[in-house]
Amino acid sequence: MTGVYPGSFDPFTLGHKDIVERAAKFCDKLYIAVSENINKKHLFTLEERVEMIREVFAGNDNIIVESFNGLLVDYMQSKKAAYIIRGLRAVSDFEYEFQMAFANRSINNNVETIFMVPGSRYLFLSSTIVRDIAYNKGDVSSLVPEPVCKRLIEKYNI
Ligand code: ADP
Predict the structure, then answer these.
(1) How many CB atoms lie within 10 A of CB 41?
(2) Residue in 8, 35, 49, 127 annotated catalytic
(3) How far apart are the first and last CA of the chain?
(4) pLDDT by residue (tens digit) across 104-139?
(5) How many domains would you assign to the chain?
(6) Whether residue 118 has its Cβ less than 6 Å from ligand 1
(7) Which of 1, 15, 67, 128 has the highest Cβ tally under 10 A?
(8) CATH code at 96?
(9) ∠ CA(30), CA(9), CA(146), 5° rounding?
(10) Structure confidence at residue 92 (pLDDT)
(11) CB count in 10 Å sphere of residue 39
């Protein structure tokens, strides 16, 4: 079973990592597909985001980190992947995620979206919150993996 976990991951948080670790238990191969989100202004470049996530999963051969552009379903077809992994936190995620799942299915009826719930300590964690805390020179070490923490410290002179 090949899964794809798509997102902008700006930056990748421990909530994202929690979802990857859960999904990797049942996916033989899991692609973390990093993209630009046209509705968001990004803090890190696409290359920086890919590089950081690769560092987080260095040594895990079944977790592959790549960037992609264009339609997710086209990327999935190129990887022969049929399952989209997405994380669900509070109710606020639901409407957007539901819409995306139907949009992807309407383009390719063979893809299924699997929603996963993170550990309860990550239910209210978002990349936006991490960026806000780091911007104000707060400690984000309990919210993001080490390679991300290092880059945030450099970026904001924390
Ligand atoms: P996008 O820009 O595509 O929404 P994100 O990087 O914001 O990408 O999120 C990627 C996926 O990870 C989404 O499905 C989102 O709901 C999920 N996610 C984000 N933060 C968490 C978290 N703390 N716990 C579980 N899932 C999360």
Answers:
(1) 6
(2) 127
(3) 42
(4) 999 999 999 999 999 999 999 999 999 999 999 999
(5) 1
(6) yes
(7) 15
(8) 3.40.50.620
(9) 90
(10) 83
(11) 6
